[in-house]
Amino acid sequence: MKAADTTAAELAAGSPLDAALDNTLILGLFLPLQEGAWSPSSAPRETSWTYEYNAQCAVEAERYGFDLAFGLGQWLAKGGYGGQTHFREHELDPLISSAALAERTRKLLLISTVHVLYGWHPVHLAKYGACLDHISGGRWGLNVVTGYKQSEYRMFGLDPIEHDLRYSMAAEFTGMLQTLWGSDDNVTLQGVHWSMTDAHVLPKPLHGRPVLVNAASSPAGLEYAAQNSDLVFITSPGGADPHRAVEALPAYNAKIKAFARAKGREVRTIINPHVICRETEKEAWAAYQAILDNEDPVAAENFAAAVTGGDGRSWRGHSREQWVVGGNVHLVGTPEQIVEWFVRLHEAGCDGVQVNFFDYLPDLRRFGEQVVPLMVEAGLREAAS
After folding, report:
1. How many domains is the chain partitioned into structurally?
2. Average pLDDT over residues 147-164
């Protein structure tokens, strides 16, 4: 399947995506680039948005055999989402962070989020991306985000853009990126939204082009993903409860992959579990409850309202309580139970999981020492070399 599918064929042999597909389940880490990570809670933890902390997370993830690491992008006013925690007031830029993390890692695919409609030109990003690809030894990927918050557009002096038009613009932008990466000659293009005359980008990406990613749930988003993406970050239509998630995901994953196959392509879907793993189930649920008991109510309210208040269609099935814990699907339990849920997510059509944690480094190390070996035993992962 892998050798024949169009997506893999677009990337040269030896790309980090090619290596990731040797595993039954792709394993990614959602880096805590933003203050407070995913949980507007003051429960005790040492999770930090700082570069050194994120670098430690990336190095540990690579040591445990993770395939990729990814950071989201955001543009917030002073105070972030507010409250006593000033949730997400500080954040590292994901594009610049990837360049720095490339020097601290050797195998990890580093995916950067870029809001391509916030004043970027394709020539800029084609050049920066190709340079990052070389700096990382061919391990850079691009998560194309259109943005949906009116406040973010206005931060850049822009008027908000209608939902479906955003994806049409992103498709034109991505097409120009790929033309620039693939052409040995100067490029002259006149698009609807961007144009260029005698544009040329060197160096070229090392594997034909970087891995392309986006998150999608709407028809317009799925149309874009089917035409352009290798990996699609998905959200559970059933909310964060894993029982409801595995009921809703088979049809959802099938729909996304059918979109791509209709265009002669294959895409892989990756979902974002928040993993709370302890020696006993009782301890795991106690940790879950501690997050809720220490919620920052103002930040939680503002966070949920911001994400659900626009015209984006993801995350609609989540409750306030689930927003406080954070992450798309909540997996709580022993190492064996976490792996059982991974098996069920894979059976529901998910090709990968991109995990996040509450107290990142200790939770990541517990995951690497106790969960990853069980994933190997379950046939989800190849043993790390």
Report:
1. 1
2. 94
**Do the domain assignments include residue 204?**
yes
What's the rounded Cα separation, in Å, for the pair 55 and 98?
A: 10
The pLDDT tens digits for 70-117 are 999 999 999 999 999 999 999 999 999 999 999 999 999 999 999 999
- The CA angle 119-149-170, to the nearest 5 degrees, is 45
Rounded to whole angstroms, the maximal C-alpha distance in the chain is 63
pLDDT tens digit sequence for 322-351? 889 999 999 999 999 999 999 999 999 999
Q: Model-level pTM?
A: 0.94
What are 93's two structure tokens?
A: 């830029």
* Separation between Cα atoms, residue 318 and residue 313, nearest integer Å: 12
Nearest to 324 by CA among 298, 343, 342, 344: 298
CA 342 to chain centre: 17
What integer is the mean pLDDT of 36-61? 97
Q: Is the pLDDT of residue 311 over 70?
A: no
Let me know: does 158 contact 36? Beta carbons within 8 Å.
no
Confirm whether 118 is domain-assigned: yes
- pLDDT, averaged across the chain: 93
Residue 369 Rama label (left phi>0; alpha psi -120 to 50; beta): alpha
CA distance 92 to 95: 9
Distance CA 154, CA 151 (A): 5
Averaged over 130-140, what is the pLDDT? 96
DSSP per-residue string spanning 73-108: -----TTTT-TTTTTT--B--HHHHHHHHHTT-SS-
Residue at 383 is within a domain: no
Alpha-carbon gap, residue 53 to 311, rounded angstroms: 34
Q: Any idea what the CATH number is for the domain that residue 96 is in?
A: 3.20.20.30
Please count the helices (runs of H) and the strands (runs of E) in the chain: 15, 12
Q: Which helix (H) or strand (E) holds 113?
A: strand 109-115
